[in-house]
Amino acid sequence: NCRCTTCRVEFVSGEPDKMTQAEKDKLAERGLTGVRLSCQILCDHDMTVRAISRLEGSGRPDPGPRPEPEIHPQPVVWVEK
Question: What pTM was computed for the model?
């Protein structure tokens, strides 16, 4: 849902050229560069990522629920990153 940014990842290879407008806006709002939000990525080809936000040291008691298999709400606009 692109609200919390706890699903941040760094791409090692295969980064998609497009992102949702919501992801682009949230990353800009938080001043986050060089990262993507895994909850907003459409996995339609091989890609390798490095998890940035990890449970250890986060203060969170558990990793939370498994992400939905589809992006919700459906992206209105896909934009160039």
Answer: 0.74
